[in-house]
Structures are given as structure tokens and as C-alpha cells.
Amino acid sequence: MPPPRTRGTALRQRLAELRGPDVPAKALDARALAALAANPGCKRRAILDGAGVNKAVLADALGSPSAFGQSQFAFMRGNAFEARVKADGGAELLRLVHEKLDPGAEPPTRAQVPRLDAIGPEGRAARTALALREATEAAAWTLLDHPMLALDVAGSPAFLEPDAVVVHPDGSWTVVEIKSFPMLDGSADPAKVGAAARQSAVYVLALEEVAAKLDPAPRVRHRILLVCPKDFSNLPTVSAVDVRKQRAVTGRQLARLTRIEDIADTLPEGTCFAPDRPSAELTAAVESVPAAYAPECLAACELAFHCRDHSRTSGAVTTLGRSLRAELGDLTTVDEVLAAAHGESGDPDDPAVAALRRAAELRAEALAHHPEEPQGRQGILDAEPEGAVCH
């Protein structure tokens, strides 16, 4: 007899049906999780990532190819730099960790580098947890090269692979993030450093789940080691990055995510995101899941162009930015905003409505002195820079 279907197996079967029976699952990595945590209200991304849908392939099938991703050249350059950093059993990497994060400990002269091979992501995650426990008990420098960590995301497990995790002689654990962008004169691009910090915060959360299962629980350090090329060379240099803020925000946002099975239960029967489906059917499947588009999605999601087109068609104010959307309260479309500004609808006691009407009055006064300026209701928004509201 076949084994009984549990809640977990039923969910996995449902997600496989959504992805397509012959479509392999795309692993959910820390970069995708950080982007998902930055937009927890997007049910579309949550269900697609949870089901392992390759959003880049899906975007191509929808006719809105993505410009998001890493070039092959950057990928190869990053792999070459990482191999250099980890050469000789990670001796240089451990020296940098000792120098930057733990100078009071004994130097890492005899570091351990355990093998983490196992079958499947579940097996690798279990092997990583065992290696972390053994290294903590041994109280010696240990380098875990590409360990596998598991993190529960909206009721579905996500398997994450940091570049490295170092166990210190005191039993504490440090996440190491290796990037190929340079540090020039000791500083790097703030946007790239911020993205690396958010990605590392996901690893810290996953490590804390592993640590919580040990007694006593080891300390997961909230200062991660960021390793980058020095200036324009291929020599590594490091910076200690405090990710406590990113960890707190990411943990809070991931906890807010609607459980994936709850989203799946609301979808029409037969919904499938397989890229070989007819275009109309595939578009209907994607549009059956609510999205929360904002301009920030263009730098973080492969479906951003598709969602932007539909957001513009519907006149959603989120197209102009999250800050503007937050200031407009219950006004969710451009038509509603313009109607409220001209007194055609809206509660005059609503601060957003009052601000819009005041802006309309000021614009009318300005146009009275400069009649050559364009007239019309749309000018209320055209007169303002994108993402701003008159107060």
C-alpha cells in the first residue's frame, strides 16, 4: 500500500502540480529570500518561489523577458576569486577571520575542513548540522565550505548554501560572504554591501535555527565577514559587517508571509505555471495570484516587467513607489487620487484627501499667474516628481 499522505506531502504534491509535473524545481536561495522578505505582501512571488518556479523562464514565456540576473562573466570571476580565497584549506580565509573578528583567540594553525557530502539537500543539511555540532564540541577552528542550511519559509522548507561558515574555538559561528565587487581604499559600493548584508542575515537566521536544537545553544555571531577583492587586484580584503538590523527586519518580514498552502488553496482548480502552457492560459494563471508591484522590484524580481505593465494598465499608484502608496492611504488608483484632488470623491477629513485638494488649489493659483502651463486633471500628478506628494 502507498504511504498515507500527510499535510507536508500533500503540500509538496500541490506545489509540484503548480510548477508542472515535468518541470524541475528551482532552489530558493538567500538572495531570493531577502528580496521576498523586502516585499512580504506579494503573494505572487511567495507562491512561485515556494513552488520552485523558475521566474526567469516564466517571464520569457509571458513575453516580458527579465533583465535581472548576473552575467556569465561576473559569475566566472566570482568563482575564481572564491577559489583563491579558499585555497590551501582556507588558511588565508581563517587568518582573516581571526584577524578581523577574533584576534584574542589562538591562531588557526590546525583548522578542520570537514566533508559535507550527502544525498539531496535534506541529507546535506543534516550533515552540516552534525558537522557544526562536532566542531562546536571540539572547540577548534573549523571551516565549513558551502554548508547546507534549512530555513522554514511560510510553511515550506528553503535550503540555503552560504559561501562558508567558520566555527571559532569558543564554539561561536560566523557567516562568511565572498563577493567579487571590489573594495576601493577600504570601502565598497554601499548598495552592494547592503545587499550582501541582507543576504547574510538570511544565513544567520538559518544558523540560529540549527543552533537552537543544540544544548547549550552556540552563539551565532551577528557580525559577518565580507570578503572582496582589494582595489583592482585579485587579493582578498575583508570587512566586518554588523547584520543585526537586517536580521531583525528579515526575520520579522518572513514571519509576516502568508503561509504558502493558504495561497495555494485560493487558486482556481487546474492552475499551473509550466512555461509550455498556452500564453493566454499561463497569463491567467499568473494573474490569479495577487501581486504587490513597486519600482524596487525591478532590481530584485524576474517578473518585474510583467507586473509593472499590468500595474500601469490598472492605474495602481504602487507603480509610482511604495512611499507614495503609503501616503495615499485608501486611495489605490490614479483615477481615485485625481477624483479626490478635485473634490469629486473622498472624505475631506482624510489627511491624504485634504493634502491632495490643497495641492490642487496651489496648482490652480500658480496656473492663474502662468496660463501657458498645461491644464487638466492629470497635471496634479504630472506636476509632482515621481514618488512625492504635496503637503
Describe this structure in words.
Strand 2 (149-153) and strand 3 (156-160) form a beta hairpin. The chain has helices spanning 7-19, 30-38, 43-50, 55-62, 72-85, 87-101, 120-138, 190-212, 244-256, 260-265, 279-287, 304-314, 322-327, 334-341, 351-369, 379-382, and strands at 142-145, 149-153, 156-160, 164-167, 173-178, 223-229, 236-242. Helix 2 crosses helix 9 and helix 14 (334-341) crosses helix 15. By secondary structure, the protein is of the alpha+beta class. The chain contains 16 helices and 7 strands. Helices cover 47% and strands 10% of the residues. The model is unreliable at 1-5 and 382-391 (pLDDT under 50). It starts with 6 loop residues before the first helix and ends in a 9-residue tail after the last helix. The strands form 2 sheets. It has a 5-stranded mixed β-sheet with strand order 1-4-5-6-7, sandwiched between helices.
How would you summarize the topology of this molecule?
Layout: H1 7-19, H2 30-38, H3 43-50, H4 55-62, H5 72-85, H6 87-101, H7 120-138, E1 142-145, E2 149-153, E3 156-160, E4 164-167, E5 173-178, H8 190-212, E6 223-229, E7 236-242, H9 244-256, H10 260-265, H11 279-287, H12 304-314, H13 322-327, H14 334-341, H15 351-369, H16 379-382
Parallel strand pairs: 5-6
Antiparallel strand pairs: 1-4, 2-3, 4-5, 6-7
Q: Count of helical segments?
A: 16
Q: What is the CA-based Rg, rounded?
A: 25 Å
Strand order of the largest sheet: 1-4-5-6-7
Q: Please, what is the average pLDDT? A: 84
β-sheet strand percentage: 5-15%
The percentage helix is: 40-55%
Distance between the termini: 69 Å
Q: Would you report the number of β strands?
A: 7
Structural class: alpha+beta
Shape: globular
Q: Runs with pLDDT <50, length 5+? A: 1-5, 382-391
SSE ordering = HHHHHHHEEEEEHEEHHHHHHHH
